[in-house]
Amino acid sequence: MTAIKVRRGEPGDAEEISQVLASAFVDYPWTRWTVDADNHVSRVEALQRLAFVELVLPFGEAWVATDEGAVVSAALWMRPDVTVPASVWDRIAPTQSLLEGGRHVASVAAEAACTPHRPTDPHYFLGSVGTLPSHRRLGYATAALRPVLARDDFAYLETCGADNVQFYAVLGFSVVAEVTIPGGGPTVWAMSR
User: Fold this and answer.
1) What letter does residue 117 receive in the DSSP assignment?
2) Helices 14-25 & 40-51, crossing angle to 10 degrees?
3) Tens-digit pLDDT profile for the chain (193 aa)?
4) Dmax over Cα atoms in the chain, in whole Å?
5) Any idea what DSSP says for residue 54?
6) What three-state secondary structure class fits 116?
7) Going from the N-terminus, what domains does the chain have, and what CATH number goes with each?
8) Are the CB atoms for 123 and 192 separated by under 8 Å?
9) In the structure, how many helices (H) and strands (E) does the chain have?
């Protein structure tokens, strides 16, 4: 296998990135809990696009792994040296609520359950990483994560699923908290490195 090509995500990648991440998160326990089942795939894709365009592009970093020029894996990070202004959160909140639909209240409660475990020190926050089903378990996600992890800075993430915990442990992350989302929601593992 040839070396996996990785580059910074750019504004023109919005559609590909949101489609790749939607394919990765469509059946993810967190997304199933926080995003309405009606037109679920489109909602998840639109939420990923919203995060990429409104948060990651101006205030974070995106890295993509490609195969023959097409984006097949993407990692969306928030940077430790930038704070998203409250006005941005306020501006996107109605769209987020609309896209989450009938699960918006559950989404707010899930966020509230995780918030106390998040670090207060500056850190890279991994918001999303995902790979097309056809390219999973081939090293694309690891390649997309590597540019930020190579900096050896403090990094934090939240994940659902024991397989994901094992994947991140191999990359040097350790579990710092285990949170069961109230009301029958999924278990979330908070991890840092």
Assistant:
1) G
2) 130
3) 578 999 999 999 999 999 999 999 999 999 999 999 999 999 999 999 999 999 999 999 999 999 999 999 999 999 999 999 999 999 999 999 999 999 999 999 999 999 999 999 999 999 999 999 999 999 999 999 999 999 988 999 999 988 999 999 999 999 999 999 999 999 999 999 9
4) 46
5) I
6) helix
7) 5-153 (3.40.630.30)
8) yes
9) 8, 7
Token pair belonging to 133: 């089903």
- Measure the CA–CA gap between 145 and 159, rounded to whole angstroms: 15
Task: Judge whether 136 and 23 are in contact, CB under 8 Å.
Answer: no
Alpha-carbon distance of 49 to 18, in angstroms, equals 5
Q: Which residue bears the tokens 């378990």?
A: 137
Q: Which helix (H) or strand (E) element contains residue 111?
A: helix 104-114
**What gap in Å lies between CA 37 and CA 103, rounded to an integer?**
9
Structure tokens that stand for 76 in this block: 């969306």
* 136 backbone dihedrals φ, ψ, rounded to 5°: -75, 150
* Residue 43, token pair as written in the block: 């909602």
Strand 70-78 relative to strand 124-131: parallel, antiparallel, unpaired? Answer: antiparallel
Gap between the Cα atoms of 128 and 135, Å rounded: 17
Asked whether 64 and 11 are in contact (CB, 8 A), the reply is no
- Please give the pLDDT value at position 113: 97
Rounded to an integer, what distance in angstroms lies between the CA atom of residue 153 and that of residue 169? 16
Q: Would the pTM count as exceeding 0.90?
A: yes
Look at residue 23 and give its three-state secondary structure. helix
Give the position of tokens 């990429």: 52
